[in-house]
């Protein structure tokens, strides 16, 4: 059911309520139940629409933004331990003449490219490559910019054998202590630990139609609701939209998209991202790195705190 249909139903209910009141019939409880059901349905449809937009096949990926926002990007490869992971790209570039290090998940457009990049699901060497380049950025006083777009880290046997959990955990620890500015942007899907491996920063943003969650709606529906067909309900329950994450203070802000999603006007979306990056880097690059680390850690520790008084209010 689309939003227009729901609005039509609400209008009909209002008309019916007026008619019943005019006739002197008491039906307040029944209407309250109906209105609650409509609210839930609208929320479910809105959350699922955002999931679909975050996964849209024409949605800009990391390299689409990198080529539009940065100058002279040079990709660097390898983790110096096992190999190179095409699901994570990293390198150096210029942002309005400021040298920066870029780390990003990269999906593929074609079947062949998606196989090579593993649909943006990184192996341990991808996260170790990202950490290596982040440490290099710290050494040369370059800010780090991460672009996050993954359904999650690769859960395969080989990834487990090579220590995917340890690689992500090490990134969480070391990114929280990097003595250089870090800005993270969730441009599409932000899935579980796979997103967190590149998601620790001084500023964390989400694109308007991006999602960020501990598990996919399909996975949540299968495990918790015992019904894979209830993915839409799970999406609403998980509170995975950019507005939800801003309300929870997990992110610092929402980057607006053109009507219909970022894929309708990638150039305009890239300009908006660039403006925010330039503004933030001008601000935080002048700060003491040790102060940045202190506030970064305070921000991380506040995530998940629950104030019952505020919730009741």
Can you walk through the features of this model?
It is a single chain. The chain starts with a helix and ends with a helix. It is globular. Helix content is 51%, strand content 16%. The chain has 313 residues and is of the alpha/beta class. The model has no long low-confidence stretch (mean pLDDT 87). Strand 2 (88-95) and strand 3 (98-105) form a beta hairpin.
How many DSSP E strands? Answer: 8
Structural class: alpha/beta
From the spread of the alpha carbons, the general shape counts as globular
Largest sheet: 8 strands, mixed
Rg result: 22 Å
Key attributes of the depicted protein:
8 strands, eight-stranded mixed sheet, alpha/beta, globular, 16% strand
Outline of the structure:
The protein is an alpha/beta fold and 313 residues long. It has helices spanning 3-22, 28-54, 62-69, 111-117, 124-139, 157-161, 164-175, 192-196, 217-223, 231-238, 242-247, 266-284, 289-302, 308-312; strands at 71-76, 88-95, 98-105, 144-150, 182-191, 203-207, 211-213, 253-255. It is globular and about 75 Å long.
Explain the layout of strands and helices:
Layout lengths: L2 H20 L5 H27 L7 H8 L1 E6 L11 E8 L2 E8 L5 H7 L6 H16 L4 E7 L6 H5 L2 H12 L6 E10 H5 L6 E5 L3 E3 L3 H7 L7 H8 L3 H6 L5 E3 L10 H19 L4 H14 L5 H5 L1
Helix pairs in contact: 1-2, 2-10, 3-12, 5-7, 9-10
């Amino acid at each position: 059911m689309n939003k227009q249909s729901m609005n039509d139903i609400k209008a009909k209910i209002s008309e019916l309520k007026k008619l019943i009141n005019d006739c002197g019939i008491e039906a307040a409880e029944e209407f309250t139940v109906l209105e609650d059901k409509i609210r839930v349905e609208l929320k479910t449809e809105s959350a699922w629409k955002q999931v679909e937009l975050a996964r849209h096949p024409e949605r800009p990926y990391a390299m689409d933004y990198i080529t539009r926002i940065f100058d002279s990007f040079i990709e660097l490869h390898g983790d110096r331990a096992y190999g190179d992971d095409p699901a994570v790209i990293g390198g150096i570039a210029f942002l309005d003449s400021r040298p920066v290090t870029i780390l990003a998940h990269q999906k593929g457009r074609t079947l062949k490219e998606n196989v090579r990049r593993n649909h943006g699901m990184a192996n341990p060497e991808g996260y170790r490559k990202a950490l290596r380049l982040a440490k290099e950025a710290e050494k040369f006083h370059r800010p780090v910019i991460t672009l996050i777009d993954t359904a999650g880290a690769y859960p395969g046997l080989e990834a487990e054998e090579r220590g995917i959990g340890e690689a992500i955990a090490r990134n969480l620890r070391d990114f929280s202590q990097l003595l250089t500015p870090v800005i993270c942007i969730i441009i599409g899907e932000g899935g579980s630990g796979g997103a967190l491996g590149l998601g620790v920063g001084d500023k964390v943003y989400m694109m308007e139609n991006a999602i960020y969650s501990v598990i996919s709606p399909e996975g949540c529906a299968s495990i918790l609701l015992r019904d894979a067909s209830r993915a839409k309900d799970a999406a609403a329950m998980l509170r995975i939209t950019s507005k939800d994450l801003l309300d929870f203070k997990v992110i610092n802000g929402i980057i607006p998209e053109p009507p219909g999603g970022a894929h309708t006007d990638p150039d305009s979306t890239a300009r908006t991202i660039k403006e925010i990056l330039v503004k933030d880097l001008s601000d935080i690059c002048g700060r003491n790195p040790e102060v940045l680390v202190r506030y970064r850690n305070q921000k991380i520790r506040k995530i998940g705190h629950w104030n019952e008084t505020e919730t009741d209010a």
